[in-house]
Design a protein that fits this description.
Pfam families: STAS. The protein is α/β, with parallel strands linked by helices and 132 residues long. The chain is built from 5 helices and 6 strands. Strands 5-4-3-2-1-6 form a 6-stranded mixed beta sheet.
Length: 132
């Protein structure tokens, strides 16, 4: 799975491309741990180029949603392909995760929430792209 990062204000968008399976979940976990250590608290996962997700990928999303919430931030998703949206619906993850239709709506929602939060911001100001 490939992951590219882009920061817009307080929100770090991570664009995912490929398969969010065991290997992809490990890549995502590693990147999310690094970005939260670097100060990111408002993270949007753009899933528009995600081909598939399995139970390990779902677990990684849920665990990081809970972890960011505990840190005073939030993890949201956007651009879920129809097949992945159906998996989220059937598994009940639609109720457990914040989901927006597209990146701009996701960034807007997270930015508004970050502004209301006592802990906000991303302490990095660069964009990068990495693949694994």
């Amino acid at each position: 799975m490939k992951v590219a990062e882009h920061i817009a204000g307080d929100v770090l968008t991570m664009s995912l491309a490929g398969h969010l399976n065991a290997a992809g979940a490990e890549t995502l976990e590693t990147r999310l741990l690094k970005t939260t250590r670097d100060g990111a608290r408002w993270i949007l996962l753009d899933c528009s180029r995600l081909y598939s997700i399995d139970s390990i990928g779902l677990r990684a999303v849920l665990q990081n949603t809970r972890r960011l919430s505990a840190l005073g931030g939030a993890l949201a998703l956007c651009g879920l392909p129809e097949s992945i949206q159906q998996i989220f619906d059937v598994s009940g993850f639609t109720q457990a995760c914040r989901i927006s239709l597209n990146p701009s709506a996701g960034v807007e929602a997270l930015s508004a929430e970050a502004k209301r939060s006592p802990q906000n911001g991303v302490e990095r100001s660069s964009s990068s792209g990495t693949s694994n």
